[in-house]
Amino acid sequence: MKPSASRIFVTRIIPDRALKVLYEAFGRRSVHVAPQDGAIARADLLAGVRGANALLAILTDVIDAEVMDAAGPGLKIVANMAVGYNNVDVDAATRRRIAVSNTPGVLTETTADCAWALMMAAARRLGEGERLLRAGQWAGWGPMMLLGMDVHGKTLGIFGMGRIGQAMARRAAGFDMRVIYHDVSPMPPEQEAALRATYVDKPTLLRESDFISIHCPLLPETRHAFGKAEFDAMKPTAVLVNTSRGPVVDEAALARALQDGAIFAAGLDVYEDEPNIHPDLPACQNAVLIPHLGSASLETRSRMAEIAARNIVARLRGEVPPNCVNPEAL
Ligand code: DGY
């Protein structure tokens, strides 16, 4: 197929850097960008994808068999502009010989920065302090006012020691923290030594951590990996941070744990049913709540979009996309 005969469908406005890559490879007329700066309606997605050879999707687009069939047999790749790809039915894509790609690596440090910021903000009650000040309720310095938890010198528990988990471990060194982690298996000893991180089972992680930061993917076995039993097993002074995927945490149980003092605080970037959040969470003053901003820096979002575009270029040139998650499809 001539590059100019390709049809690329992009589900919403994305950084220019990616569009430039697509325009250079395929010509402007081949690239169709849904015009809204918001989630695409399902009907618009099904209509827009029709006849597409490549689909550039974002993590809130549900890309299932229906979407792939709506595209037709010419669809060669779903390039997800995210490292997580739980919004794409990869098995359905593989059966149709459609490549699925993600954007690993580029958002590691940016997401770890965000997780670290959430951890600090929740531990030191920055959200509460800011709300108090903005409401004009600050009566001046008080020896007992908004006392939080120290971060330095404490134990950081990392649940999911992939790239972002490891980036958290590196940050912890600067705060003189002890790092323990849990994953499906331990890292090689030399990697553990470099990160000064110790593998522990999940009960130990829950029992010994002052801070737990979640960095696992969303899989059937990680859904609600943190619920009432886990919160009860954590220290009452512990802080939970989640920048991975919302359903890893049972939000109703978390809201109760925050209300009852089962844990000290939480910092959340992701939610079970985005953009909705559990109705009890906003009232939890000890929760720092931000709207899925993990990778939201100008530099990183541009890089993510560009990577998605380059995966499309590679696939439509007949190459294996550099970030293909289902190479068996090809
Ligand atoms: C991802 O890429 O999975 C992130 O959640 C995006 O912010």
Explained architecture:
The protein has 330 residues and is an alpha/beta fold. It contains 12 helices and 12 strands. The chain has helices spanning 16-26, 42-48, 65-71, 90-95, 108-123, 126-134, 163-173, 189-195, 202-208, 228-233, 251-260, 298-316; strands at residues 8-10, 31-33, 54-57, 77-80, 99-101, 155-159, 178-182, 197-199, 211-214, 239-242, 265-268, 287-289. A 7-stranded parallel β-sheet has the order 8-7-6-9-10-11-12, with helices on both faces. Strands 2-1-3-4-5 form a 5-stranded parallel β-sheet. Helix 8 links the parallel strand 7 and strand 8 (197-199). Helix 1 (16-26) packs parallel to helix 12 (298-316), helix 2 (42-48) runs parallel beside helix 3 and helix 5 (108-123) crosses helix 7 (163-173). (2R)-2,3-dihydroxypropanoic acid (DGY) is lined by residues 59, 82-84, 107, 294-295.
Query: Strands of the largest sheet, in order across it?
Result: 8-7-6-9-10-11-12
Q: Order of SSEs, N→C?
A: EHEHEHEHEHHEHEHEHEHEHEEH
CATH architecture of the largest domain, by name, is: 3-Layer(aba) Sandwich
Number of helices: 12
* Spatial gap, N to C terminus: 17 Å
What's the Cα radius of gyration? 22 Å
- CATH first level of the largest domain: Alpha Beta
Q: Report low-confidence residues grouped into runs of 5 or more.
A: none
Strand residue content: 5-15%
Number of strands: 12
Sheet with most strands: 7 strands, parallel
Principal-axes shape call: globular
In this entry the ligands are: (2R)-2,3-dihydroxypropanoic acid
